[in-house]
Amino acid sequence: MKPRTKRIAFVLLALLTVGAASALISKAMDGNLNYLYAPEQVLKGEVPAGTVFRLGGLVKKGSLKRSDTKLEARFVVTDNRGNEITVVTNKILPDLFQEEKSQVSRGKMNDEGLFVAEEVLAKHDSEYMPAELKDVLAKEHAPAPAKVDGSEIGKMTGQKI
Amino acid sequence: MLVLSVNVVAIVFASLLGNYADYILGAMFIAALLMLFEPIQLMLKRRAVLHDIKRLKRLQQRETSERKKSDQ
Amino acid sequence: MKINWFKYAAPLNFYSLAGKVIPFFWVAAIALTAFGLYWGFFKTPDSLENGMKEYYRIIFVHLGSVWMAMWLYIMMVFWALVGLVFNTKLSYMMASATSITGALLTVVALATGAIWGKTSWGTWWDWDPKLTTFLILLFIYIGYIALQSAIDDTRRSDKASAVLALVGLALVPVIYSAVNCPDPTQCSSLHQESSMKNIEPNIMRGIIFTTLGFWMYSFAAILMRVRNIILQRERNTTWVSKLKEVN
User: Fold this and answer.
1) pLDDT beneath 50: ranges in chain A
2) Which residues on chain C are in Cβ contact (under 8 Å) with B35?
3) How far apart are alpha carbons C118 and C100 in whole angstroms?
4) How many Å apart are CA C17 and CA A111, to the nearest integer?
5) Structurally, how many domains does chain C consist of?
6) B15-69: per-residue pLDDT in tens?
7) Domain assignment of residue C63, given as a range
8) Backbone dihedral angles phi then psi of residue A117, each to the nearest 5 degrees
9) CB atoms within 10 A of CB A106
10) Is A30 on the interface with C (CB under 8 A)?
11) Is the CB of residue C123 less than 8 Å away from at least one CB of chain A?
12) Range of the structural domain that residue A78 is part of
């Protein structure tokens, strides 16, 4: 290869990289605005029918049911304000997936109003506290009231999901 | 390229083992691999650069001595 | 004591100074990282309140590399700017030496993050705002390195890549704000926020020491590389030919 063609190739590579970078920035900005939808938004019909989207929210306590015969699980995603959507999936649930914890699943609504998930991910917070300490604290203090008050809403739709 | 391919192998390796300890080891392995690769590469590079400079210097010295000879 | 800082802007003086301090940075890097990893593995709880098991310990290599990848980008732009303003050869060399270590640590951050993501979230990769912006950071590093090596005339390549680095700087705040924006409903993501509250003190100590270790590592590697660059660019000068390394 002539030095000049080499230089041209390198310049093109640099341009390509920058182009990819800017394209991805816009993609990320898109995702920033609607990376995921809360159950309320879905129930209001903000998601066009038939599209694949991400559903965020808490797994309702006591709602997780695994099928005895096949690899299928059902659980209810809630925002603790009465907006609930039932998710059905035949994928393996991640280790961190638990009731009353945040999850993000990707899929679409079917005709029966069920969310069929192709992928179920668990979300966690950035509080790195030991499990034992939490138990001790919980015993010391009075049992925590159920988290259904309005102050949780911001967290519900945001970071905690 | 080498680093990238080793990376991919390490990730596949870690996923095959599937146990948490191996995931941690996988992550440590990748970090250690890349962070050991860099200083080794830098030392080799230094040797090559110094070698180059020495060669250049010898070449110049030979040229000047030959010129002196032809001048005489 | 008054130190004449401009003395070390001359490649000749900086070359010998860097040669003297590199061993100390290596010792510090190894000691701090080893201590941080030891503390992180043996003095921290095995499972966390948020349900994470042993695998959360990937944080000790993940967080340090994430922070250093972003910090080195800022340092790279700093040196590039110094070069643009004062037209000093050495600062461009520093910027160029920083870029490769920065890119490498970005790869470490992405790889360790992928492994952690697989264990906790259940996926290697997701087009989450934070992950996507961090991938772009890698692309910008690669773009800078490619541009630098594309132009043979170092004076021109230094300037061109400095401008690119400067443009790319816009991304660093985006990475940070991709999760930590003021209105949480506008930036919901898979990645947890980067809040430093509520971290168990032993975990925190592990994070701090490994991060400091990675920082010292960056110093050592960058100074080693800048010495190579100095030798390459100054090979025709008399001071290089008088060095004891080449005699």
Assistant:
1) 31, 142-161
2) 104, 108, 217
3) 27
4) 72
5) 1
6) 554 457 777 777 888 888 888 889 999 999 999 999 999 998 888 888 888 888 8
7) 28-246
8) -95, 130
9) 19
10) no
11) yes
12) 39-157
